[in-house]
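Side project, low priority. Logging it here so it doesn't get lost.
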Amino acid sequence: MKRARFSIQIKEKGMRFAPFCSFFRKRYELTNHLGNVLAVISDKKICNSPGGYDTALYYTADVIMAQDYYPFGSEEPGRIWTQTNKSSYRFNFNGKEHDDETYGPGNEYNYGARIYDPRIGRFFTVDPKSNKFSWSPYSYSGNSPIAIIDDGEGPQDRVRAARQFLNKGYVYSNKTDNTGRPLRTTYTQAALQKQDCVELVTRVLIADGAIHSMNVNKNDYYLARKISIGVLLNDAKKFAKSQTPQVGDIAFWEGHVGIVTGVDPKTHKFKLLHAANEDAGIYENKTFTTTAKYSHGTFYGFYHPLNETKENKQIDITKQPVANQPNVDADQNAYVEPKKPVVKKPKNN
């Protein structure tokens, strides 16, 4: 959580929101000190020339939507306005994206780390840092919604990174030597076009800053196996394990891994973004389902980094981190292929 500063802010969202027409495609959020989106305008200027003047006397903004909120985020009845020919805006309270599918319009917000219900001012799951506070682990902003923002952390960035791979191809790669492993160690266009499930997950974790390498302690994370990527995920110093999914978790079966992109808080069913097979490529399931539906292998659990990175980072999966180049790694425990010793032949007398 962080204390909010009182101010009015305007944020340009550019192409984040689907355009309504070929022109005036930008959207600007007018927010308050809490990040609540009070109004959204486009880059269209409406000309006003009363009295039949040939030139405009002034311009007014093209308002897409406007609304007010109760302190904990519920929408105020009668205080919501949307242009009749425009779709509703996806980002509202605290600038978070709302999901109207389960509980109706404006009754569920995705904070990345957890799902929030503004009607009761409570999250659906326990705060992972609740041991540091004295109030309820389900509470929002310590029950001080006017002054404090209960912002999310890194999980949503993993979802955004994973979605940059959507509709790309699948290829199963099982090469282990440094010179024959280009799809796992480079960020060329060819390398990013096709990959398997483990390569997808490790690239997402690197983009989020959760890990810095694709190998550690002589184990390349090139297989969805307990003895391969399981070495990374079961490292209790880096990852926490649960049987209950949260957005941004890594779902791990013997033989498959993927990124959790949505969770139904009532049933704990979830949506998965993963590299499935050559026919389907990399895609995100549209419906909630269970672990048994995704893979028939042994399910080990849902994993997330113990130390989440800050939310809303600039995520670009095409950018190669220096630490991820072959034989170069920022992780002190990372395995680097040793050089073969030079054996000098004894000189003949």
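Brief comment: The chain has two domains: 7-48+59-151, 156-324.
Revisit when time allows.
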